[in-house]
Structure formats: C-alpha cells, structure tokens
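Shapes recur. Our protein:

. . .
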Amino acid sequence: MSGGKAKGVRGGVLAATVLLAACGGGVKYRPVSDVPVKIGKPYSVRGVTYVPAADPTYDYLGYASWYGSESGNQTANGERFRPKAVTAAHTTLPLPSYVEVTSLDTGRTILVRINDRGPFSGRGRIIDLSKGAAQQLGMHLKGVAPVRVRIANPSEKDRKRLREGQEAAERPRVPESVLAKWRAQLAAEK
C-alpha cells in the first residue's frame, strides 16, 4: 500500500472509531446513586431565576407533564436519562429527592426519584415525569395532568428499586372526597 493510501485508511478507521464511540455514549456517566445530594446554585432559564433548596415540607398542587425523547442524555445530577425509569425533573428540590405524586384525576399515588431539572414551561407545571413515571401514574396519554407533589422519605428498599429504574411499592389511593377538595383548591389558585 502506498503511504498516502495507508494514511487514508488509518484516517478512515480513526473517524469510524470516533463515530462509534459517540454512538456508544462517549460521555462518561456516573452510576445511579443517592450520594452526594446536590442542592445547587441559583440558575436562570428563559428569564426566570430558580433557587434550589432543601424543603422538608414541600407539598404542592399543580400540573405534571412528561418527557421521554431525551433517552441517553445526561440528567442534571450526572446520570443517564432512562425514559422507562420512574424519575422526574423538578426546578428546585435537591438532586436526588424522593416525592409522592398523586393524580388528581384518579387518586393514584406513586413514588418518584427526582434526578433532573425542569419543567421550565411555566403554566402551573411543578414536575416533569419520565415516560415510565407518567405511565405508572396513568397520565401518559394526556401529556399534562393535575397532581399533588409532596416530599417523601421512602424505605431503603423503595429507594433501591427506584435507583434501578423500577417502580416502588404501590401506595394507597386517595379517596374521592380528598381529591375533590384538592381539585377545588387548584382551580381557585388559577
């Protein structure tokens, strides 16, 4: 092989190797862990400033949306985003945090691990669920649903299941009388 042709083959092999490395995720992701917990510095998105903070009394009514096309991207705490896992994004809670999310439509309550930042669309959205979490909650066909989100302190068994991308143990449904009260409260806040 002539010198010029050999360089061209080596260059083509190098380019193919680089492209394959990029397809394989080229970015280093750390394993899913609950430590260290990150509070983070204030940050701004679309002109709105968010101030992350630990809030052991976090308990809000609002709307949940979901996302799932970001498969393989890195979350705000350095993990690989897994659409089928039961995770979510929140603008200010520490990473990771655990919350209970209750659908005001059905009363179904699930446990979710917060590992990313968002939603940034406003319009009363207080949490952005992964596709897996949205499916477990039963809102994946709707796109946006009214919810109650409150901080939780789950068992280590449930934490481990969520870190592995699985659902935590089923939680009791909320009675219709309580849901009606929450719906009225949310409507009054608009």
